[in-house]
Amino acid sequence: MIQHFLVARNLLLLAAAITAGCAQTGGTYTTADNSSPLSWPTPRVDQAQAPTPPEPTNVPQAAMPAGAADVQPATIAPPRRAAAPRPKSATSVAAAPATAPRTESRARTAAPSSPPDLWARVRNGFRMAPVDSGLVGDWENYYASRPDYFAQMIDNSSRFLYHIAGEVEKRNMPLEIALLPMIESAYNPVAYSSAHASGIWQFIPSTGKNYGLKQNWWYDGRRDVIAATQAALDYLQTLYGMFNDWELALAAYNWGEGAVQRAIDRNQARGLPTDYRSLENMPAETRNYVPKLIAVKNIIENPGRFGVTLARVPNEPYFEVVTVERHIDVTLAAQFAGLTLEEFKFLNPAHNKRVINSDSAETIVLPKRQLATFMAAMNQHRNKPLVSMKTHTVRAGELPHTIAEQYGITVAELNQLNGIGPRRHISTGQTLMVPNRTELQPDLEDKPVVTLVSAAPRVRTVMRKVVVVRNGVRRTVTVAVPVRLGGSASPTRSAATARHAAAAQGRRAAPVRVSNTAKAPAHKIAYNPSAAKRKNR
User: Fold this and answer.
1) 3-class DSSP assignment, residue 236
2) CA-to-CA distance for 244 and 216, rounded, in angstroms?
């Protein structure tokens, strides 16, 4: 009796062990020789995170219940816990999704997304040291007291700031540099100074050419925001490499690197500091240049402190750059993009004429929202003319009315097309825009920059030999005499001009001796200061 009881107890313990081992493996049990798997109900787990299941227990084949080899495996639904780790058993991989925890882990460790507002991104990139200067406070008050002007400056920058900030970040430069066009031009892409500086970065023609900005009759790269930004950042990086200081680099951008270097050399020779604020003989514009930038930076960093409200600028691209392979009228391009002519010109200020010459500048800047509209219109006009204008080079003897009649327009319309005012006139070799009456694509070759000639009388300077008598000494000298083109100068006026020029030359420096055997005609002018004084008495 006792023996039967012990056998029954052992069988019950063995069954319980098998049941417990199978439950811990998610409902699947595999024998040692991988034959005849058994299926068991999956236990319900109510905990937020299940513990790591242990290795399944391999039970000897002899201990399997009778008939277990005939049982087919059942489909086990994965447990409803996203964070449950996968078991180490190879056969239990299909029971739970393996990618879910990895995805959640990546989401938890991913870098924070970029701020939705561009100003937050710009503030995070400020690296220039604060400037404790009364000039900074003066400029803070200046901008804060002119909210309309500051708001217009912010509105202008909203089209280009995302692009410029990205280019500054690529070069690991402080993001204060992205605010520099506010100081240079108030972010006005058509700004033009009395020193002939142009564009938001205010390049003069020579510096623009040095940094690869193309300038011709059709196109001025100084006003191309994309090209000018690259050139300006190249220039600023060069200046920083020279001075290893951003304040000095900015001063050189405004004053010139040669002037800054000479000011540094003077201070070094006198044993004085060579930082920006210690340089002497600095122009007022340069002295205020960095304080103005720091003042704008301080307002953007903490607008509430100055009572300024910054318009929100999304931290996303405003425009796309489109490559065009055909010449196109500016008005037609604006129409295709669904923009007003003013907005289109604001984004594309580099085009000097009414036609965008694809040979000079093959790109057009458009708002992202209008890109699809523009491309659809271009596809619809694939085989249609896009240009209503062409060029005409003025030949010798041509007059405005003959050119206008040739193209079926009036002289007033010809002047309007070419910006010719009442005090301007056309000249031989000048290029004019005229209507294109054919459907053929005109040949718009690159033209150099041409300055219209004023309608004032044209005068050139000629060298004349004159005889000067001074203190009883007779000398023949050569002087410059202005002569009106298109006719001989009045002998009386020429003689008087020559007399005054010779007299001035005789008083300032020794006259130039010319051989008396020269064949050039000489006008004899008697000038004796002593005699003149006696006569006046």
Assistant:
1) helix
2) 35
Q: What SS3 class is residue 454?
A: strand
The Cα–Cα gap between 229 and 226 comes to: 5
Angle, alpha carbons 430-434-438 (nearest 5°): 135
Q: CB–CB of 389/355 below 8 Å? A: yes
> What span, in angstroms and rounded, lies between the C-alpha atoms of 61 and 81?
33
CA distance 309 to 299: 10
R_g (Cα) of the chain, nearest Å? 42
| Alpha-carbon gap, residue 165 to 176, rounded angstroms | 9
Query: Which of 215, 189, 218 is CA-nearest to residue 201?
Result: 189
472 Cβ contact list (under 8 Å, min separation 6) = 528
Provide the CB-side half-sphere exposure for 177 (13 A, CA). 29
Angle at the Cα of 450 (from 449 to 456), degrees rounded to 5?
Answer: 155
399 contacts 430 by C-beta, under 8 angstroms: no
Q: Which residues contact 11 (CB under 8 A, 6 or more apart)?
A: none
Instruction: Give the three-class secondary structure for 110.
Output: coil
Euclidean distance between CA atoms 537 and 532, whole angstroms: 9
| DSSP symbols for 384-417 | S----EEEEEPPTT--HHHHHHHTT--HHHHHHH
Among residues 328, 341, 307, 311, which one has the least CA distance to residue 154?
311
The rounded Cα 127 to chain-centroid distance in angstroms is: 20
Contacts of 127 (CB under 8 A, 6+ apart): 174, 175, 176
Q: Which of 253, 248, 240, 149 is nearest to 197 (CA)?
A: 253
Q: Is 167 a catalytic residue?
A: no
- How high is the pLDDT of residue 495? 46
pLDDT digits (tens, 9 = 90+) for 128-166: 999 888 999 999 999 999 999 999 999 999 999 999 999
Contact between 186 and 153 under an 8 Å Cβ cutoff? The reply is yes
In one letter, which amino acid is 485?
A: L
Q: What is the pLDDT of residue 359?
A: 78
**DSSP letter (8 states) at residue 37:** -
| DSSP string across 204-219 | -HHHHHHTT--BSSSB
Q: What is the DSSP string of 459-502?
A: EEEEEEEEEEEETTEEEEEEEEEEEETTSPPPHHHHHHHHHHHH
Q: pLDDT under 50 in the chain at which residues? A: 2, 14-112, 448-457, 486-537
Torsion of CA 81, 86, 89, 93, to 10 degrees: 80
Q: How far apart are CA 234 and CA 444, in angstroms?
A: 31
DSSP bridge pairs for 475: 468
Active-site annotation holder among 169, 184, 247, 342: 184
Quick one: which H or E segment has residue 432? strand 431-435
- Closest to 368 (Cα-Cα) out of 332, 338, 388: 338
The predicted pLDDT at position 518 comes to 38
Distance CA 515, CA 495 (A): 21
Structure tokens at 481: 């005499």
Burial of 203 from C-beta contacts in 10 A (0-12 / 13-18 / 19+): buried
